[in-house]
User: Which sequence fits this backbone?
């Protein structure tokens, strides 16, 4: 009998930009980490920021930390695919590398807010997949935001107000996933990534493959 293992061809494919946004406390960081650990072909897009480095962060891994003058020069050079000012600091997605990576089939994960997502979509629409995570309830979000440490009621109220305003942008996304259980949510987000990779338009090797089938 013929050996039927490994019959699935690996077709050339264009990479995609996978955007994950959520109000803080909805589990975006956990889902991002799990995706990066599980998906070999997915790389984090490392943003450039003017905000001060936090303890435990690594320059070049978490962000590229730069001065405001350097950031402004990069804006003037059109070095960003998108950029935004968030809470008084500037954040931007460097254009370099991503274009070449996409053409070579590399997928990128973006942890950016709704403003960045909107700009990215305007600039690179067909390559962008937008996923928004929601908390299961406001009570659960408040619980997650207040169980982080010893923050005052005022700080927590500020975070809740920001979370509500972020949630109001849910309709600017292609997919919305309610994160009530981390494993189930991760499974859904991974399914979205796998399905998006199979879109006909991204499978650049398909034409040649189908020609071969019809020969
Ligand atoms: P943090 O300072 O806590 O790391 O991030 C603050 C906010 O900036 C988060 O909502 C994050 O999603 C957003 N952010 C991080 N990098 C970028 C970026 O490159 N572009 C945009 N538009 N937002 C970003």
Assistant:
């Amino acid at each position: 009998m013929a050996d039927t293992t490994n019959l699935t061809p690996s077709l050339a494919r264009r990479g995609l930009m996978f955007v994950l946004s959520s109000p803080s406390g909805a589990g975006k960081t956990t889902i991002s980490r799990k995706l990066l650990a599980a998906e070999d072909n997915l790389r984090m897009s490392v943003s450039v920021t003017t905000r001060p480095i936090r303890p435990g962060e690594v320059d070049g891994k978490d962000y590229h930390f730069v001065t405001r003058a350097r950031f402004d020069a990069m804006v003037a050079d059109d070095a960003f695919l998108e950029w935004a000012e968030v809470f008084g600091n500037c954040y931007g997605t460097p254009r370099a590398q991503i274009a070449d990576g996409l053409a070579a089939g590399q997928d990128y994960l973006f942890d950016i807010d709704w403003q960045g997502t909107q700009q990215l979509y305007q600039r690179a629409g067909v390559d962008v997949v937008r996923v928004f995570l929601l908390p299961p309830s406001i009570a659960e979000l408040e619980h997650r935001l207040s169980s982080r440490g010893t923050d005052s009621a005022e700080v927590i109220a500020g975070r809740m107000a920001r979370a509500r305003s972020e949630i109001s942008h849910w309709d600017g996304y292609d997919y919305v996933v309610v994160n009530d259980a981390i494993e189930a949510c991760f499974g859904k987000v991974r399914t979205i990534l796998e399905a998006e990779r199979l879109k006909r338009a991204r499978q650049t090797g398909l034409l040649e493959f189908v020609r071969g089938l019809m020969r």
